[in-house]
Design goal:
about 450 residues, about 0% strand, MFS transporter, Growth Hormone, Chain: A, transmembrane helix, mainly alpha, transport
Length: about 450
């Protein structure tokens, strides 16, 4: 047998080294992609459940009004149903304070696991609620309690989940990671609408009123335990672990309100146009199209669905773009575009009220909303250091949503009723864009990256 000298053996093994490395690289890349998907899924699943419930409740509002608020007058019953849904917004600031502080003191996992189970509890209560015919006044009281629980949990969801995403994001990818919060909202609205439309098509009105309206809530109930399982098996972000090890997480509420008031005000201002545009163009516009423009409901739903699909795709794109060119240019640019185009868009809709015009307007504003809301979550999270990030973000976001966003459909309706002008809601959108622009310009150095 021929002897192999050391030099020959070294040459042979050196040739094998690149082969080993070439196999390791794709394996490591696959693991990184899996970790990225798990992190994003863990964060957005609660937001998905919240907005899915929102869409379903709105879709079946008329059915719910008949079953739980039978006043004898359909309009009064519907108003009570909508008002009951609005009760949830009252609890959002409370949830923001309590659950936001929990996320900074006890950990992101503890807060996010709590929010999704509370949200699932509220969903289950609606899905299994006894009707007025079965329980009398206890039935509407039960629905109100469910909405209070859901509102409380929602108050801690966006802030905690956005902090979780930003802190888990690799360097230079915070905008992309955090943008999935907005993409999940649009996706959940779309899923809820499709769910409602499908049930309406396949079930008779009697079946829908007897049990069909409960199906999407029970489907949503499944999301809760799955989300809890995923969230309890995630890791705390490294930056948060370091802050906790350094003892920096004590009294996050006092620290946020004492040392980061300017940042909270800036975040509040940034959220105004975000929440007003979301609720006006993505939630209220189908109603506006039917009641004001006299278009068929099917047309309004298809056009709205197209806008939601664009938002799902483009929010992550603009989030990733903000990682390259910065958050501030995109936020200022798209807030300005919304301010300039809001009134002409509604003028065009009222002047040429047809399906094509509605679709074009909603697609254009879906792009504008994506351009603002893609980078906005990361920009707001970067206002705060890890030890107060969940608290500060939750307070700023939820107070703005409660004051400006949740009441946007009501304000739009009231403006039209008071003025008799179908263009009046455009001024509310203009005001929101102007307020956010002022906040962005005044924030100055507060809008900077923080680890």
């Amino acid at each position: 047998m021929k002897n192999i000298d050391a030099a020959t053996l070294a040459d042979a093994t050196s040739n094998l080294a690149p082969l080993s490395s070439s196999h390791e690289v794709p394996v490591q890349a696959a693991r990184t992609q899996d970790a990225t998907r798990r992190t994003i899924l863990a964060a957005v699943i609660g937001n998905t459940l919240e907005w899915f419930d929102f869409a379903v409740y709105g879709f079946f509002a008329l059915t719910i009004s008949r079953l739980f608020f039978p006043t004898g007058d359909e309009t009064s019953s519907l108003l009570l149903t909508v008002a009951t849904f609005g009760v949830g917004f009252v609890m959002r600031p409370v949830g923001a304070v309590v659950l936001g502080a929990l996320g900074d003191s006890r950990g992101r996992k503890a807060a996010l696991s709590t929010t999704i189970m509370l949200m699932a509890l509220g969903t289950a209560m609606i899905g299994f609620a006894p009707t007025y015919a079965d329980a009398g006044l206890w039935a509407p009281a039960w629905i109100v309690l469910a909405r209070l629980i859901q509102g409380f949990s929602a108050g801690g969801e966006v802030g905690g989940a956005t902090a979780f995403l930003v802190e888990h994001a690799p360097k230079g990818r915070r905008g992309y990671f955090a943008s999935w919060q907005q993409a999940s909202q649009a996706g959940a609205l779309l899923l809820g609408s499709v769910f409602g439309a499908t049930l309406t098509d396949v079930l008779t009105p009697e079946q829908l009123q007897a049990w069909g309206w409960r199906v999407p809530f029970l489907f949503g109930l499944i999301i809760g335990p799955v989300g809890w399982y995923i969230r309890t098996r995630t890791q705390e972000p490294e930056s948060f672990r370091q802050a906790r090890a350094a003892g920096q997480q004590a009294s996050p509420l006092r620290q946020a309100l004492g040392s980061y008031r300017r940042e909270i005000i800036a975040g509040f201002g940034v959220t105004i146009v975000w929440t007003v545009c979301t609720y006006f163009f993505l939630v209220y516009m189908p109603t506006y199209a039917v009641r004001t423009l006299k278009l068929p409901q099917s047309v309004s739903l298809w056009a709205n669905g197209a806008g939601l699909m664009v938002l799902v795709v483009l929010a992550p794109f603009f989030g990733a773009l903000s990682d390259r060119i910065g958050r501030r240019p995109l936020l200022i640019g798209f807030a300005t575009a919304i301010l300039v185009l809001a009134y002409p868009a509604l003028w065009l809709l009222t002047a040429v009220p047809n399906p094509s015009t509605l679709t074009i307007v909603l697609l254009v504003f879906a792009v504008l909303i994506a351009g603002f809301t893609g980078p906005a979550p990361a920009a707001m999270a970067e206002l705060y250091p890890p030890q107060v990030r969940s608290t500060g973000l939750s307070i700023a976001y939820n107070f703005a949503v409660t004051i400006f966003g949740g009441f946007a459909p009501f304000i739009a309706t009231a403006l039209i009723a008071r003025t008799g002008n179908p263009l009046a809601p455009a001024w509310y959108v203009v005001f929101a864009a102007a307020a956010s622009l002022v906040a962005l310009l005044a924030a100055g150095s507060a809008l900077r990256n923080r680890d």
